[in-house]
Specification:
Two copies of one chain form a homodimer. By secondary structure, the first copy, chain A, is α+β, with helices and mostly antiparallel strands. Chain A folds into two domains: 287 residues, 3-Layer(aba) Sandwich (Aminopeptidase), CATH 3.40.630.10; 123 residues, Alpha-Beta Plaits (2-Layer Sandwich). Chain A is built from 15 helices and 19 strands. In chain A, strands 1, 2, 3, 6, 7, 8, 16, 17 and 18 form a nine-stranded mixed sheet that branches. Chains A and B meet through strand 9, strand 10, helix 7, helix 8 and helix 10 of A and strand 9, strand 10, helix 7, helix 8 and helix 10 of B. Strand 11 of chain A pairs antiparallel with strand 11 of chain B, so a sheet runs across the interface.
């Protein structure tokens, strides 16, 4: 009875919830670019104020980078009820190439599309729209019941899109305050665009940046071409060498700690009828790339990758400049699975590059920050409880799935706070996160809010 | 007697000549960047006015791109005297990376260095400083004698650094006006920084720009990594494939029209005692790259090359963005020798790239503009006459040399105007042309002016 009232409140307040989300989306909180530092701060302030308005004791917490938001509520709830920690991130990806956006990325708007109404803006899906689903669910609960159903801590980060440099120190320094019974992370998606899903295994990530240096200055390719090292050419050779013809990654030892998935899990995944053709077709592709001897779902959920995410060197303006540049650079990321150790892979990568440097060429390496893969302990009964609540809301059995993306915070909650994490989100593959024209379905937002209301009720036995 | 007076005039007017050069260097005539179109026009206007001031009938001639400057002088000289055409270019290379310049590239200044006084500015050496050597020699001659020693046409281009798109049509349309007995091109250097040289063979150039297209938008490497084509990775593979381990270029048929140099020429070149160690050491390198089975001088003067001059794709800003980009691009240039045909090499390059494109990836190609190599007919007695004049000025026997750079205009003068060209210049390898902190030695400028005065005298029998 009480849940029904909360769900009705979620429905009735949808327009207001969209207004609040739009206010947050208007703030260009691009964490990776120092030019937007004040905007990140402003986004944190807005969230502190919004959480305070529904009764949370909310604070902005400084870090050497962008601030964290920590909020506590329901602290007078019974000790027999669970203490939940909710995580999301208020920072967003850069918007380039800006010219491919059909509208201002920070002027959110509702759009009617063939597939229904969508919210169009950078961060609409990743992760502002998603984090506001649980905030709005709590608001509805508080408005109907006057209090939260159980003790809740909200923890919002502002550096997720820039490698989370402050996350581990902050978790360590505030472990007692942040520790709860279980974490709920809202930064993932529906399976196949329609099946609610709890992610139980996530790939890790190792990010590398390298710059090759050759001559002490840019050279004229007429005078020096054929005689001086060209760092671009060398960079292309090193990067090309990282994968063989079959798509396998050639770093020595790279696959040592990569487990094969169990027959059981393979059967579960096959039952999901993953439609890779549609996923590729959505973005103008038709043929799966990558490791030819693995199923498409396995490539994305259970296999490690190596991708060049950016490359630059020499003259890249209009026209032509026959230069042999002094340097050339690339950003490379590895998705990690199983027990692959980011530090070990980083060392192997450094050795791989150094072994290919001829005389006169040196390489600068970044610090190679990374996080290992995560596999959740689904024996915790909260997983089945949440699964049931999701199934009721969406009218279809919720799935335990893998995910190709990396959400290192899940691993850190486990190792630093000793807490399992449940990853539940409502994004769709066609949300264009990290790309121009990012969107979030209004349906995802609305049913996302309702889903959290149901999960809150189920976990606190108030359904 | 009369030559001595002209040479004294060259010495006495040096400071004024530097002032005039500085006025030209202050104009940022970067031809490849449309933002500097008005500046290119202004540079042409300045030269028209300067040439008119020493009696030339000078005009700015429009083209679809930047204007040409054409000036006629000595038109009443006897028909038994030679008609000379002088060529230079008033446009300059872009200045990026600007942060590596120690001063404003368009605020020319004299600097005392350990190796003597230098003129520091973009274009100081390539080619404004060089073209003003012949202009100043003519000014001195006119001031001393009241007239030029023979009929002279001056032809200055403003698109040399951006592929000379208007050159061939302009030469065709104005062939009668521009045809002379021999062309003098001032855009090359001293051999080994001290020996005056006439270039008798020049490499050609083919410039290519490619963009690989994969997905219809940038993708999140977590969702799509391992499943979608990464155009950067493919680009690195294609570019790496262009050269084998020995440095040889792998385009099918690439070496078909590359002649070996004659034993005679090889002996001449060996006598030059080319110091590749110093040339490399000047730019922080120590070991010659490129084709291991060729001498360094042969690699630079007589062998074709393939160099990546620019590459870009994905996220190249600060921080990290785990993106699989929709596209990746590169600028590639080939230096051509012997009978290599730019159109044939362009076609081979297109085939080479297309053969390496998997499903879902397409490639845009530029028009692949280029020019073949040039080999001069040194039997023309003007070559030996000029060589003698240069030897007198510099006190060392002038050399017939090759050059690694491409000066396509020499080939066009031959094929369109039926005229041999003599390439004489006073640049040095350490001039940093096309690079930050370009300079031109005051000695090059001063003795360059005197060299042209001597050549004018010798060719018109007025020594």
């Amino acid at each position: 009875m009480s849940l029904d009232t909360v769900l009705m409140r979620c429905d009735g307040a949808l327009d207001d919830a969209l207004d609040r989300l739009f206010t947050l989306l208007e703030i260009p909180s691009i964490s990776t670019d120092p030019a937007y530092k004040a905007d990140c701060d402003r986004a944190a302030d807005y969230l502190v104020s919004d959480l305070a308005s529904i009764g949370f004791e909310a604070t902005k917490r400084p870090t050497p980078g962008h601030p964290m938001v920590v909020a506590h509520g329901g602290t007078d709830a019974g000790d027999d009820l669970p203490h939940l920690l909710f995580y999301g991130h208020y920072d967003v990806q850069p918007v380039d190439p800006l010219e491919l956006w059909n509208s201002d990325p920070f002027a959110p708007a509702l759009e009617e599309t063939e597939a229904g109404r969508v919210i169009r803006a950078r961060g609409a899906s990743d992760d502002k729209g998603q984090l506001m689903t649980f905030v709005e669910a709590m608001r509805a609960w508080v408005e109907v019941h006057g209090a939260l159903p159980c003790r809740i801590t909200i923890f919002l980060e502002g550096e997720e899109e820039s490698g989370s440099p402050s996350l581990v120190p902050f978790l360590r320094d505030n472990a007692e305050e942040l520790k709860a019974d279980i974490a709920m992370i809202c930064d993932t998606g529906l399976h196949d665009g329609k099946v609610p899903a709890i992610v139980t295994q996530l790939r890790g990530l190792l990010a590398e940046e390298i710059t090759l240096h050759a001559a002490s200055r840019d050279l004229h390719s007429g005078f020096y071409g054929g005689l001086a090292q060209n760092p671009i050419h060398l960079l292309t050779r090193i990067l090309a060498d990282l994968r063989d013809e079959s798509g396998a990654i050639t770093l020595p030892g790279f696959y040592d700690d990569v487990p094969d998935i169990s027959d059981d899990l393979r059967a579960q995944w096959q039952a999901l009828n993953f439609d890779h053709t549609r996923m590729l077709d959505d973005v103008g592709l038709s043929v799966p790339a990558g490791e030819l001897d693995r199923t498409p779902l396995e490539r994305v959920w259970a296999r490690p990758t190596c991708e060049v995410n950016g490359i630059w060197g020499g003259y890249i303006g209009d026209g032509f400049k026959t230069v042999l540049p002094a340097e050339a650079s690339a950003k490379i990321s590895f998705r990690l699975v199983g027990q692959q150790d980011p530090e070990k892979i980083h060392a192997a990568f450094v050795d791989f590059v150094n072994a290919r440097l001829p005389a006169d060429v040196s390489c600068d390496f970044g610090d190679g920050h990374g996080a290992p893969a995560s596999v959740m302990s689904t024996e915790n009964p909260a997983f089945d409880t949440a699964r049931g609540a999701l199934s009721e809301e969406w009218g279809v059995e919720a799935a335990f799935v893998g995910a190709g993306g990396s959400i290192p915070v899940a691993g850190h909650f486990k190792t630093i706070l000793g807490m399992d994490a449940m990853l539940i989100g409502f994004a769709k593959e066609d949300d264009a996160i990290h790309s121009p024209n990012e969107k979030y379905d209004v349906k995802s937002f609305h049913k996302g809010i309702r889903s959290w209301a149901r999960i809150l009720a189920a976990l606190s036995n108030q359904g």
